[in-house]
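FAQ
Q: What does a multi-component entry look like?
A: The components come first, one per line:
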Amino acid sequence: MTKQGPRNDPPILELRGITKSYPTVLANDSVDLEVFPGEIHAVLGENGAGKSTLMKVIYGSTQPDSGEILWQQENRTIRSPALARSLGIGMVFQHFSLFETLTVAQNISLAVPGKLEDLSARIVEIGHKFGLEVAPDTLVYSLSVGERQRVEIIRCILQNPKLLILDEPTSVLPPQGIDQLFKTLRQLADTGCAIIYISHKLEEIRALCDEATILRQGKVVGTVDPKDTSTSSLARMMIGGEIPISEKSNHKNESKVLLKIDRLSLSSADPYGVSLKDICLQVNAGEVVGIAGVSGNGQSELMQLISGEQRFVTEGQGDLLFEGNPFGHLDPAERRSLGLNFVPEERLGRGAVPPMSLSDNTLLTGFSQGMVQRQLIVRKEVNAAAEKCIDAHDVRCGGFSAIAQSLSGGNLQKFIVGRELSMTPKLFVVSQPTWGVDVGAAANIRQQLLLLAERGSGVLLVSEELDELFEITDTLCVAYRGQLSKPMLTQEVDRLTIGRMMTGLGTTEERAAS
Amino acid sequence: MSRLRVEPRVTESVIAQYLVPVVAIVLTLLSGTVLFTFLGKAPSAVLYTFLIEPLTSRFGIGEVLLKMAPLLLIAQGLAIGFRARVWNIGAEGQLIIGGIFASVIAIHYNESESTWILPAMVFAGMLGGIFWASIAAYLRVRFNANEILVTFMLSSVALQILYFLVTGPLRDPDGFNFPQSVVFADSALFGVLIEGTRANTSLLIGLTLSVLAYVFIRHSLPGFKLSVSGAAPRAARYAGFAESQAIWLGLIIGGAAAGLAGVGEVAGPIGQLQRTISPGYGFAGIIVAFLGGLHPIGICLAAFFMAILYVGGDMALISVGIPNAATTIFQGMLLIFYLASYLFVHYRISFQGRAAAT
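Then the predicted structure of the entire assembly, as tokens:
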């Protein structure tokens, strides 16, 4: 090997011919992989390419049908995640494994030995060092998705692993946080820890990783040095074609005001919640408005008010108007029939009922769309609607009777977005629509949002991904500590400004003036 | 060195779901056998008396059907609430209040021979059960008071009200101060279902309600909403299904069904209002609902089985000399074993043997 750096030592992990099949798919087809100490190794692939299965094999949560795993050059059968951890393999999951009713420190103490006070101090220290700030004595249930991921990352780092697997870790971090995380990961790699980095963000992989293994349909299609490979050729290897890029047409915004929130304040009943202060927001027909911000800055509270999951009647101040009429007293179903549809950030358990079929999950929000007659469910209609949504949005699943929790994140999200779009919303409110979704599905969802706006609907997009916001929004606001900045034209601001505002560093003029 | 671990299943086991009631019943019978052996009885004789003898005579079958009626009614009603995670465990109290409401009509119109008496009693009994369950629903919705505690405590209150009424306002004036009401006229009693037995037509109400429950759960929007509330409360809120509606509906249906069961008792085998109108049907109904997997068809089978236990317990008391408490013990074991077995629907035991060391 001519390359200098980590590859001088023997590989810490070597996979030979790993094959794993599930009843319907061949998830891994004779996959080979070598990871060296101190190396940051990207595993790149679309959803369903077999990345997650491969990681489960390494982490011991599933067993391969055939193939060998060599850990530190010894043939090993990794029977369980516990064994993997004892070998020194850590993993930060895309779906979290935290106890909601315990505090951050308590959760971490379940995996890391040590006294709670010492742990708390180390959590604060690591949080500060890596920009993963989270209060150790906060109860996990009140944390946002982004904050929970921070806890997961901290938990792994505290265990001093020899190999750390990260599954799409940057999707919920602000730009500064990403830089910091990269610094952390490089520091970690310098100490000899190997890192497997799963992502579909090609630029990130090129900036961070020493080596990239690309998977497509369960097979390795190539192992390359990402720094020497162009983004487009990486993309081509990954999806076997060009990445679809959402086309934003330069349409003129219509002037009709759909959603107007005027000086809304609401103090949170939850001690760990965020109180909203003086929120002003307007979404016009034909416009995509984005709310940027690190999660936990009031976005979820605001979304619940708009969706109707939290009624807005008398406790707070301000106005909540839809097409000029107050709608704070309506329940979510009533708002949906007005043309206000919402896609929440949590897919399982909120956007969809996990143990129920896609057909039942169509009924969940579509029950007023001719699927019910005299309170009796018309199965034929429900199934037809579900099938239509599955076909129209390329949801890969076992048909309308497939159970929601059996779908991959991306497919379930396509289903939920498709389900709400089928009601032709006037105002479409989406929260983190592409979080943990593969690149193809994410592009598809963004395209749908743009298409909707082009047809004259309004779109409100809450996201932590700046790429996404800059790609499709017309107007941007930044949420910080329960306040919302003045709207800015997306074309006229740059990422750095938004990034600074997301962490509260924006100048006073840029922040909410009230 | 090998060790046992309980770990969550990746997907819940469908087979386990069906096996759970069977395993629970088998374990209960096995433990029962051990218990009777210690009591110095021949287990085969006891089990025969408990499980087979009730079905060998016309009288026995009649008794089983008689006891099946209230169990079926209560369990079907409770199961609908349980699916929405509304834990009404006070069906006993709702049964008592339903019985009292029905009795008031029967006692007041004791001279009447109108065919409307019985329907009016059925209606009143339902109202009584609904009224009693509504108290818990109101307190839960308004003050977030735990419905488990409220329904349970209201059962005790109901019992005290019954004691007060049968020793006071509703006591038979010619009854030599016995704490019971007048004997109801025939117009206030359910007809006999099978000639020569005590089984009465209230069983038909239970069976009808089972069909309705099936339609409600499987094919109606309100039933779907309740299931969503139970399976994913946040999805229910997102969809716009009010939690308060699920609580009200769950408790009202349970209360109405328990009230009906109360009517079946006072207008059935008892034929008057007295201090005891239920041998714990309200609580046994909870076990029946779970044993039947909260499914209308499963509940029919479970109610039948539980009724056999009741009748078999009576028979074992007489013919083998088993204490009366045996029935209660069986019920208790059933519930414990059911809950223990249910763990395996979502979890499995894995043996972590030597492989870990290789």
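Q: Is there any commentary attached?
A: Sometimes. For this entry: Residues 246-339+424-514 of chain A form a domain with the Rossmann fold fold (CATH 3.40.50.300).
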